[in-house]
Structure formats: structure tokens, C-alpha cells
């Protein structure tokens, strides 16, 4: 049962065991990771082009996306404000202008990459039998590089264990997202394990889409990608509005992106005190995404 999980998970573990001391090497790895994400998202678009009854399948992808997004977000947002009520976080307002539109466009660019692959596949009529194998090979390389990134993210085990609020926020996200996935799976009439896997993306749209696509096909891959990307776009919009009154809610809803993509928004909107909480919460969730998603996909 776990052979497939081990096959995909092994590169991540190997990568995590590799320390990198040179900034130039880390920069190179970060650049190649970003490029591989674009390549594999293009392949996801090509996979969608190879589906029979494409219009019906696209409708199914959007239905899955909406159902999971609403179910998971509702469960998250019912619980996160409780943390703010019983364990307040001091914030400070920094009025520097945020590159909001730039960050939104970076997210929307990824949708265009998938759409570009879809259009190319439809217009050229090329043989797409090679796409699944190519996606699998690139996925293994990508997981290896992601493992290196996690190991060299600057977070030590001591720093993680000492930040209790960051751990609490991450735990609440996990414990509320999984029931949200079960609710969505029940509504859609799909296996609960598929729902749990879909709920384990925690905002990491690229990896979630790739893993779900590799495990369950392009429909689930596309839905996972859009679900997590929509979460990030909503988080970018909500953080500046919510963080002064509900900092834990704003940080938690950002999910895994709280340690990287949405971190500048969190810092500029909530102040420096929010940064360690966001980094720890985001790091733990990022680390759990491949663990939990691959586990549920293997069941």
C-alpha cells in the first residue's frame, strides 16, 4: 500500500538530508524549482487537453474547487478566531505600500501557464501519451529540490519548538482542514481518502496540484491547484484587513504560504511580532503537505 508513497516521498527525504552552505547554490536551487513548477503546470494543462468530454470535466473541476474551498475555509475560519480571543497577539501597523497587485499577478500567472498548456494541447492535436511519464519524472526532481529548500529554510528544530503560537495555529489548520475535506467528499460523493488528500494542501497550490494530479489524475490535480491558489488570493486580500484585530486568523488562513509568499504582507500589515509566528506556522504546514497528501493518496 505504501510502495507508491515511498517511491514519491523518497526524493523529498533525500533532499532534506542535504545541507547547503552557499547562498549562490540555494539561489540556483530556488530558481530551478520555480522553473520546474512552471514546466509541470504546463504539463498539467496538456493533460487536461487529453481528457475526453473536456467541457464536462472542466465543469467538474470547478465544482470540486468550489466545494472544497467553501468547506475547508468555513471550518478554518470557525476555529481560528478562537485563538485570537483566548491568546491575543500584539500587532503594529506599518504604512509602507504593499506590492499587492504584483503579488496577485504572480499568482494569476500560474493560472495562465496551465491555460497555456491546455490551449497548446487543444490546438496542436499532439500525441499526449508522454505527458504523464514526463510529469512523474519532473515531480521526483521537484520533490528532491523542495526537500533541500525545507532543510535550508533557516528554521531550526529549536526555533520551531519554542514558538508555541505558530505550532498552535498550524495544528488548528490541520485539525479543521481535514474535517472540511471529509464534508466536501461527502457532498461530492467521492472517497473520503480523496477528500482528506485534497484538504492537505494547506495553500501550497503548486505541490498540491502536482501531487493530486499524479495520484488521481488531471481533474483532481486541476481542482487542487485552483483550490489552493484561490486560498492564497483570498489570503492576500484579507490579511491587510483582518490582521490588526485577528492576527492568528490572518496568519493561519494563509496556510503554508505564511512562511514565504504572503510573509511580506503579514510583516508590513501586522508588524515584526507576527513574523516568527507566521514562519513557524507556514514551515510546519509546508512540511506536512507532502507527508499527509501522499499518505492519504496511498490508502
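Q: What amino acid sequence fits the structure above?
A:
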Amino acid at each position: 500500500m505504501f510502495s507508491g508513497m515511498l517511491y514519491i516521498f523518497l526524493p523529498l527525504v533525500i533532499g532534506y538530508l542535504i545541507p547547503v552552505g552557499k547562498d549562490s547554490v540555494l539561489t540556483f536551487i530556488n530558481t530551478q524549482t520555480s522553473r520546474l513548477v512552471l514546466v509541470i503546470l504546463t504539463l498539467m494543462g496538456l493533460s487536461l487537453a487529453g481528457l475526453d468530454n473536456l467541457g464536462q470535466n472542466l465543469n467538474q473541476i470547478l465544482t470540486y474547487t468550489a466545494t472544497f474551498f467553501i468547506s475547508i475555509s468555513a471550518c478554518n475560519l470557525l476555529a481560528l478566531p478562537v485563538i485570537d480571543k483566548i491568546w491575543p497577539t500584539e500587532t503594529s501597523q506599518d504604512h509602507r505600500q504593499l506590492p499587492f497587485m504584483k503579488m496577485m499577478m504572480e499568482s494569476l500567472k500560474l493560472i495562465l501557464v496551465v491555460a497555456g498548456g491546455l490551449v497548446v494541447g487543444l490546438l496542436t492535436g499532439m500525441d499526449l501519451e508522454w505527458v504523464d511519464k514526463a510529469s512523474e519524472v519532473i515531480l521526483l526532481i521537484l520533490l528532491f529540490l523542495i526537500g533541500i529548500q525545507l532543510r535550508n529554510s533557516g528554521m531550526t528544530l529549536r526555533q520551531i519548538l519554542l514558538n508555541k503560537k505558530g505550532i498552535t495555529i498550524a495544528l488548528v489548520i490541520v485539525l479543521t482542514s481535514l474535517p472540511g475535506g471529509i464534508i466536501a467528499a461527502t457532498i461530492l460523493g467521492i472517497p473520503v481518502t480523496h477528500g482528506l488528500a485534497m484538504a492537505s494542501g494547506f495553500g501550497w497550490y503548486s505541490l498540491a496540484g502536482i501531487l493530486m494530479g499524479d495520484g488521481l489524475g488531471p481533474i483532481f490535480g486541476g481542482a487542487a491547484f485552483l483550490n489552493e491558489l484561490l486560498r492564497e488570493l483570498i489570503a492576500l486580500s484579507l490579511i491587510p484587513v483582518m490582521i490588526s484585530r485577528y492576527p492568528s486568523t490572518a496568519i493561519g488562513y494563509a496556510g503554508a504560504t505564511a512562511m514565504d509568499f504572503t510573509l511580506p504582507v503579514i510583516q508590513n500589515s501586522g508588524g515584526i511580532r507576527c513574523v516568527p509566528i507566521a514562519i513557524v506556522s507556514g514551515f510546519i504546514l509546508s512540511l506536512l503537505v507532502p507527508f499527509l497528501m501522499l499518505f492519504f493518496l496511498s490508502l
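Q: And what stands out in the fold?
A: The chain has a mean pLDDT of 86.
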